[in-house]
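[agent] plan:
  1. take the single chain provided in the ticket
  2. run structure prediction with default settings
  3. attach structure tokens to the ticket
  4. add a short note for the reviewer (M.T.)
[agent] executing step 1
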Amino acid sequence: MLKIELQGLKGFQQQFAKAPANIKKIVSAEIQSAAAEWVAGARRDVPIDQGALKGSISYFMRTDLQAEIVAQKFYAPFMEFGTKGKYKAIPGTEAIAQQFKGYKGGDFMDLLRAIVRWVKRKGISGTYSVKTRKRTGNKVNQLAEDYAAAWPIAMSILKHGVKPHPYFFKQKEIVWPKMIERIKRNFETKSGVSVIMPGDIKQPKIVTI
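[agent] step 2 finished; step 3 output follows
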């Protein structure tokens, strides 16, 4: 599981603690918009055959000025950073990636089922009718064929690892600066004066559990 919080706005919150409600509303709306953009970007960039992982990426507002974005599948960090000899930390996330290096948690069956779905989508297993181009056999036999094809793939992943497919933390450099600029522009439009943003809002806080 991966998690990031769009927070780190301490100086900003202090500066505008007594600001009019409409100003706080602007900030809250921009944080929520940024979280939605982060989710959309991560879902777009997740490996195309990881539908379950894509569906697990979401966000919620913890407070008016704090959003939490998560990728909830246990193998989310393995797809992000890679495993075994293919492991590669993304600059700025080394401490997070290190937590998952050699990680033994999670559910193997969850991984296997994800591969089964991939095998089925790709039409890797089973036989197909030349006339109808449809797969032959009943659902029970088809599922057994899918698992038989998925099993060696899952075992190979465990043994040899997977290449990194960055999709989650890369959104930080895309979403965060745009959010800060939109907030600044909104303030200047509302106040009619140039706004200098507090220094401690340059980066979101990256956390993981």
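[agent] step 4 note for reviewer: The first helix runs from residue 10 to 15.
[agent] ticket updated
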